[in-house]
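> forwarded from #structure-qc
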């Protein structure tokens, strides 16, 4: 019985670990992007501000992702967190774009 419970626990932890490794755009935004994008610092478009995001959206998702990965104007590459993966940055971009639609 003890082995079955431990096996089930190990399977659950393994599944949880896999899920936590998947990029969570909202979490990445909250931890890395919100500092500027929530307040609009240095002309960062605010989350959900459709008018501010419209011209940026017109450039295309790839251009936005490139800016987020490499930095643009006052925005540092990867929001100033070089430990972020490209997938995490992409998830944050997706989250911000979804808020502006």
């Amino acid at each position: 019985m003890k082995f079955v419970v431990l096996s089930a626990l190990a399977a659950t932890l393994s599944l949880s670990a896999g899920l936590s490794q998947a990029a969570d755009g909202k979490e990445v935004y909250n931890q890395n992007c919100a500092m500027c994008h929530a307040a609009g610092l240095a002309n960062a478009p605010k989350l959900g501000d459709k008018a501010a995001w419209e011209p940026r959206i017109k450039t295309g998702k790839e251009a936005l992702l490139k800016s987020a990965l490499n930095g643009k104007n006052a925005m540092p590459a990867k929001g100033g967190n070089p430990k972020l993966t490209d997938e995490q940055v992409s998830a944050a971009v997706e989250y911000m774009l979804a808020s502006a639609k």
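QC bot note: Confidence is low (pLDDT under 50) at residues 3-20. The domain at 23-99 is CATH 1.10.760.10 (Cytochrome Bc1 Complex; Chain D, domain 2).
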